[in-house]
Here is the input.
Amino acid sequence: MRKYVFGTGLISAVTGGITLLRGLRNDEDFTWREALAWLSWGITVALAIGAIVDVRKASRGKSIPADSPVAGDEKKLLKKRAQR
Here is the structure.
């Protein structure tokens, strides 16, 4: 579980969210640029979680989509899990 929570994608998504939350403290109007920043943050979180799910599936021997970042490494991930 530790390798998933402390993954670089998830850490960068959390720090980006914190930065966006700090920007909301100001008494400025909500602009389209902020809306795009929040949309981008949401996409980043979704991709980080999707990568975590794909790694977990691959390490358990299940098939993953071909467009996944870990596609082709299923055997290596399964071998690592078997060693533990």
Notes: Residues 32-59 form the longest helix (28 residues). The chain has one domain: 2-83. The helical segments are 2-5, 8-24, 32-59, 74-83.
